[in-house]
Amino acid sequence: MSLGWWFSVALFSVSMCGTPGPNNVMLTASGALYGYRRTLPHIFGIMAGCFVLFMAVALGLGVLFERFPLLQQGLKIIGAVYLLYLAWKIAIAPPPDLTAKEGARPLTAWQAAVFQFVNPKAWVMGIALIAGFMPASGSLLANALVLSAFMEIVGFFCISCWAGFGMAIGKLLKTPRAWRIFNGVMGLATAACVGFIVS
Q1: Is residue 33 part of a domain?
Q2: 36 Cβ partners below 8 Å, 6+ apart?
Q3: Are 154 and 17 spatial neighbours (Cβ–Cβ below 8 Å)?
Q4: DSSP symbol at 18
């Protein structure tokens, strides 16, 4: 694993984790509504889910999609439906001063982790990561652990920026009407990510 290899994986991680997608849109909304600290379980859930997914791909789970295309279609349908549900929840979320009264809360670590297995961008990242950067020599398990862990470390800073961006936006929203507009826009943006799934 040369310095060039580490640099290439870092660039790949930034390009994948730092660009818009279902996770980052939801993190922006969560950061705005709940702040960065309350969004941390969501962030760690994304990381945990992606790590398990990347390891599974490295150890051969990705082959199932090639052999059983219906499995991939089923995951796409589940992912699309769940994403639309999340989009609706984001769109109707009340302003922060009403949140406590209505019992709203950010996505849990478990929910965020499970979502990665129906998130097509996570699958694309995992398959591209393993196919493009897995060292040809050495222990398969050790290489997969190092590669997946390194991408998670870089990814943490990228997705944290989205939550921080949302938190900064949240400080600019001063009225309930502004919050309703923001939540509606974020809900629509989340729903639009269904296009990534069904395409």
Answers
A1: no
A2: 160, 163, 164, 167
A3: yes
A4: S
- Expressed as residue numbers, the domain containing 172 is 40-56+74-198
CA angle 111, 113, 119 (to 5 degrees): 95
Q: Residues 65, 66, 69, CA angle at the centre, nearest 5°?
A: 60
- Residues of the chain with pLDDT > 70, as a percent, come to 84
What are the phi and psi torsion angles at 130 (to 5°)? -70, -45
Residue 96 resides in a domain: yes
Residue 172 lies inside a defined structural domain of this protein: yes
Residue 22 counted as domain residue? no
Q: Rounded CA gap, 185 and 180, in Å?
A: 9
Instruction: Give the rounded percent of residues in the chain with a pLDDT score beyond 90.
Output: 26
Tokens of 146: 């190092």
pLDDT in tens, 69-108: 777 677 667 767 777 887 787 777 776 654 444 556 788 9
Q: What is the structure's pLDDT at 113?
A: 94
What's the rounded mean pLDDT across residues 106-115? Answer: 91
For helices 22-58 and 69-91, what crossing angle results, to 10°? 150
CA proximity to 106, closest of 91, 124, 90: 90
pTM (two decimals): 0.76
Tokens matching residue 121: 């961008």
The tally of domains found in the chain comes to 1
Cα(80)–Cα(115) distance, rounded to whole angstroms? 11
